[in-house]
Write a structure and sequence with these properties.
heterodimer, A: about 130 residues, mainly alpha, Helix Hairpins, 4 helices, about 0% strand, B: about 500 residues, two-stranded antiparallel sheet, 19 helices
Chain lengths: ~130, ~500
């Protein structure tokens, strides 16, 4: 075991709390930005932060402490019980791509909005009402 | 069997990548190829429906992994019915829009056709998939195409409506992902049938938290109150065939996802009442908002939300008759609302603004289109010789069976409201004093074929409802028979 792994084993609970706490904090920060900020770009940044928090939460759920990469190799056939769950990682990869597409589309829409209304403040975009 | 459910998804995806290349060869390829693909989907629907009538449901395994581990596509009488309906309506909407967009430049028409095709393909994907993460991916495919199409016209306020829709859609996807995380941690599976099988062991509070995430996320696509703020803007700013697609295809897929989650995956008490109350509130508010609209497309959008509310009420009642009525109403809503959007757009084309008050006496200019609009309006309200009557009738019957007196009163009251605002428009079209010059935009031949086939459907099903009822009957049975669904999926392959 390297020095880092020993350190990791000693503070396992702390690290778990830190990872989960970070992901929840990212989600809350993102929600705050989406709901409270007035600038369109800031809103999109908030959406991205919220997505990042959810992705982190998803990967953290699949992790088991001291786990190995989910690959069966020769001489390591019985590693199944100690592997981290590969499904959340695969799902998060997909979700990251989708989040990227949404962000890119949102930014291009903001450019269009700015050309049309000459403002990026969400309060001044009110040509559509009930 | 040569044709399998995966053709629904593969054909549009291949075409979407091929269209930019094919336009280099011939500039009309962008308009023709989506039509071929959508027509192929109609053929796939007929073949699959015939197959499941003879051999029972299909669960197709992708990439060789068996059902609980791999992604499976499921065609039961229920999903097959909705997928056929969506693909047929998608093809008719393509037919309508074939020459409508001829005025656009080469590049723009390409994007329009690709996005429109992907939106329909994604909706079919939502309906036939048996895996919740796959459902999420398809919802995002539909979402991204829908956001882009809403912002398609640079000259209108499309970007604003599109951004609003995107923001709400981004929220929906985040919530859906959170719901999937909770479900995955609790059941260790992403397959709908296996989740449904393991759901009784999940702690109650986890179930409710996950269900709330799903209801919020899918309620946005299904236009459930109070998550439908995007709908009137998106419907009114998008190109007309897209508005018709939102009403006929996307909202049907959204309602399907909501119903699949509530009916099959979760077994929470009281969620039916929630659906019923939310459906009622969204119906009432949407219909009241529709009265005060001055813009024709916005009025139709609110009316569409009202119809979806009625569908949710019927699914909330939950008896077999009510589910039957709800599925019938989904079909009617798709057909009639597409017809209203298609005809309404020709009125808008021939007036300077999109206001209802400038429709005065347009009957003289566009007699055939006006006639079809009147027919659609009457069918939507539920006048007896048309198909809209039967769906409303069955929903009212089921409400009477379960003794929901207030629901019956509410639905009838809302029908009166619908009557008021549709007849106000129809009255202006037919009986108000004519003004102005003759029509500058006559409907093209393909648009007339598309609109007439929808109108023909309304009349034929209105007179002979027995033509379609056996299909809806078996669809309703397939939806309600949850244990059969689980068993078939997990042991079929």
């Amino acid at each position: 075991m390297t020095e880092f792994q020993i350190l990791f084993e000693q503070h396992k609970d702390l690290i778990t709390i830190a990872v989960y706490g970070t992901s929840i904090a990212l989600i809350v920060i993102g929600l705050y930005a989406v709901l409270m900020k007035k600038h369109l770009i800031k809103i999109v940044i908030g959406l991205s932060i919220m997505d990042a928090g959810i992705h982190l939460l998803f990967v953290a759920i699949g992790y088991i402490s001291g786990g190995t990469a989910p690959i069966f190799s020769r001489g390591n056939e019985n590693a199944g019980a100690r592997m981290v769950d590969p499904v959340p990682q695969a799902l998060v990869l997909t979700a990251i791509v989708i989040g990227f597409a949404i962000t890119a589309l949102a930014l291009s829409l903001i450019i269009r909005l700015y050309k049309h209304h000459h403002t990026a403040n969400i309060d001044q975009l009110n040509s559509l009402k009930w | 069997m040569v044709i399998t459910p995966v053709h629904y998804i593969i054909a549009p995806l291949i075409a979407a990548f091929a269209i930019p290349l094919l336009t280099k060869i011939h500039k009309d390829a962008a308009r023709v190829v989506p039509g071929i693909v959508l027509f192929y989907n109609v053929i796939v629907s007929f073949v699959l429906m015939k197959h499941i009538r003879e051999h029972g449901m299909i669960s197709e395994v992708l990439a060789g992994w068996q059902a609980p581990w791999g992604i499976n596509l499921v065609v039961t009488p229920f999903t097959g019915y909705l997928a056929s309906m969506v693909s047929i309506l998608g093809f008719i909407i393509w037919l309508y829009g074939f020459r409508f967009k001829r005025t656009l430049k080469g590049g723009e028409i390409k994007f329009y056709e690709i996005l429109q095709m992907m939106m329909i393909a994604g909706s079919i994907g939502i309906i036939i998939t048996g895996d919740i993460f796959n459902l999420f991916v398809f919802i995002e495919i539909v979402g991204i195409s829908a956001f882009s199409l809403t912002a398609f016209y640079r000259s209108r306020d499309g970007a604003e409506a599109g951004f609003k829709y995107l923001l709400i859609g981004g929220f929906a996807s985040a919530f859906l992902l959170l719901g999937i995380i909770i479900i995955y941690t609790q059941t260790g599976s992403l397959n709908m049938a296996q989740i449904a099988e393991r759901m009784p062991d999940v702690p109650q509070q986890m179930k409710i938290i996950a269900l709330i995430f799903f209801l919020v996320a899918l309620g946005i696509e299904a236009e459930m109150f109070p998550l439908n703020g995007w709908a009137p803007d998106a419907y009114s700013q998008a190109p007309t065939p897209t508005s018709a697609t939102f009403a006929a295809v996307v909202s049907v897929a959204g309602v399907y996802a909501l119903i699949r989650v509530v009916y099959t995956m979760f077994d929470v008490e009281g969620v039916n009442n929630y659906l019923m109350i939310m459906g009622f509130v969204s119906m009432l508010i949407a219909e009241i908002a529709a009265i005060s609209q001055k813009n024709l497309k916005r009025m139709l959008a609110y009316s569409s939300m009202g119809q979806i509310g009625l569908v949710l009420i019927a699914f909330g009642i939950g008896s077999k008759l009510a589910v039957f009525g709800a599925l019938f109403l989904m079909l009617n809503h798709g057909v009639i609302k597409s017809l209203l959007f298609m005809t309404g757009s020709y009125f808008i084309y021939n007036t300077e603004d999109k206001k209802i008050k400038s429709l005065n006496g347009i009957y003289k200019k566009l007699p055939f289109v006006s006639f079809l609009f009147g027919l659609g309006a009457l069918a939507l309200i539920g006048f007896p010789p048309f198909s809209g009557f039967w769906s409303k009738f069955y929903i009212l019957m089921s409400a009477a069976d379960e003794k929901y007196i207030f629901l019956i009163i509410g639905i009838l009251l809302v029908t009166v409201i619908e009557l008021t605002y549709y007849l106000r428009v129809v009255g202006r079209i037919f009986f108000a004093k004519e003004e102005g010059e003759p029509a500058s935009h006559k409907p093209s031949v393909n648009a007339i074929i598309a609109m007439s086939s929808l109108a023909l459907f309304i009349i034929v099903i209105g007179v002979y409802p027995d033509l379609i009822m056996p299909h809806i009957q078996s669809a309703a049975e397939a939806l309600l028979d949850k244990s059969n669904y689980i068993q078939q999926i997990l042991s079929l392959n």
